[in-house]
């Protein structure tokens, strides 16, 4: 098994993952696109392992998961002022975020072949070091090992910004704070993964409007 990634690599992984996730997620919110594909509930591997997303909004636990969250968001959007359609009445603007690694070696629902591949990469790299005890060359095995380790990181992302309900630009704004725990989308890991898949999925979400 490849070990956890270095601290330097963790910073890079979390920053890039958080930025990509935020761009996609809040764009989907503003465009009124379905949100289900952002959550572990939509992934067969997590579903088979009995893993469901844990979502809370303003202290209310949403047992219905992503579907209940979407219904709640639509309800609030529909309460906006003005004559525009409901899809135009909610706007989310991110003002800042912070991200950090929760678990550098996340394995929940990880397919056996991915774990086996990481183990093989580690073994190959160790054997290539020779009997002299010197460092192993940074070859293809090391690259595979690093990629495998990076794919198993879980991340906490804290987002702050404002949300505006209403058709008018003068509609009141509410500050919001949202914390996500993102975990790997195992379907997006590996050289044979389909293109265009989200690399990170929401396992936990806590939304609070101030």
Automatic annotation (TrEMBL):
Domain NTF2: 17-209
UniProt region (Disordered), positions on chain: 120-140
Source organism, top-level taxon: Eukaryota
Record's protein name: NTF2 domain-containing protein
Lineage: Eukaryota, Fungi, Dikarya, Ascomycota, Pezizomycotina
